[in-house]
Q: What sequence folds into this?
């Protein structure tokens, strides 16, 4: 299931393959996570965390 399909399924009260994930953080959290996980771009971090909503 794609992120879009997952979000739409949840919106329509259907059962997605997993709970759609979102990620909100301030700048210091972004920087610390990118450093700890050794990623350079935010999009790369979001993919590693399996975040569905951008």
A:
């Amino acid at each position: 299931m794609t992120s879009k399909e997952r979000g739409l399924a949840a919106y329509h009260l259907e059962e997605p393959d997993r709970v759609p994930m979102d990620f909100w953080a301030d700048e210091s959290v972004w920087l610390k996570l990118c450093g700890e996980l050794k990623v350079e771009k935010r999009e790369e971090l979001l993919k590693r965390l399996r975040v569905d909503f951008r």
Notes: Helices lie at 3-11, 27-37, 42-48. DSSP finds three helices and no strands in the chain. The chain has a mean pLDDT of 97. The radius of gyration is 13 Å.
